[in-house]
Design goal:
By secondary structure, the chain is α/β, with parallel strands linked by helices. The chain has a single domain, classed as 3-Layer(aba) Sandwich (Rossmann fold), CATH 3.40.50.150. It is 32% helix and 25% strand. It has an eight-stranded mixed beta sheet with strand order 3-2-1-4-5-8-6-7, sandwiched between helices. α3 links the parallel β1 and β2. The longest helix is centred in the middle third of the chain and has 11 residues. It is globular and about 45 Å long. The N and C termini lie far apart (38 Å).
Length: 203
């Protein structure tokens, strides 16, 4: 595959953040993979091997064009076509908030992989809070839709997701909270725009 340039990596700090959570040479399943750009980046940056799962016909074709192995499937129906423990990582990048059955997909991720990685927009970010205080649903780069046409149905804060993990047997191994290409350490639930979590089934 053609290596992705440094400028491409810089333009997608979310790809860089996910790559930092993945070991070199790992077997990866990317759920809701879109056009396969993330998986292609991981193949180049971490020498991973794996598959994408996508439902949209145009994205399926784009994955083929990108040289990505892709399976057409609806995530809402689960991951029954994959055996338990088949992958080192299952990734759900900025798709969690659009899932109807959040609990089901997290359980399936823990079943088919050693570890799961999710990323999602932090609804607790201060600009989102400010828009709510002003009487409007937030619209931003990571939440670009209006209330009436948004696919996002389960928005959450960092605290919400971490409580969800505790309640559903997911042990958080690592988290990265980002604002653009900067990692946020101070008051991340207030100043973080995107959240990245690596987790495993509670032992």
């Amino acid at each position: 595959m053609t290596n992705i340039s440094n400028s491409s990596a810089i333009s997608r700090p979310d790809f860089v953040a996910i790559a930092a959570l993945v070991k070199s040479g790992a077997k990866v399943l990317d759920l809701g993979c879109g056009d396969g750009s993330l998986l292609r980046y991981l193949c180049n940056a971490r020498d991973v091997h794996g598959y994408g799962v996508e439902i949209d016909d145009e994205n399926i074709q784009a994955c083929f064009n990108n040289g990505i192995n892709v399976i057409q499937s609806d995530l809402e129906s689960g991951l029954s076509s994959f055996e338990s423990g088949s992958f080192d990582y299952v990734i759900l990048s900025q798709t969690l908030q659009a899932m109807k059955h959040t609990e089901g997909i997290i359980k399936e991720m823990m079943r088919v992989s050693k570890e799961g990685i999710v990323s999602f927009p932090n609804f607790g970010y201060w600009k989102n809070r400010l828009q709510v205080i002003c009487g409007h649903m937030p619209v931003s780069e990571t939440l670009p839709y209006q209330w009436f046409d948004t696919p996002n149905i389960h928005l959450c804060t960092l605290g919400d997701f971490e409580r969800f993990c505790r309640q559903h047997g997911a042990r958080i191994l690592e988290r990265r909270i980002m604002n653009g290409d900067h990692q946020v350490s101070f008051a991340p639930n207030l100043f973080g725009i995107l959240a990245f979590y690596r987790f495993e089934r509670q032992k």
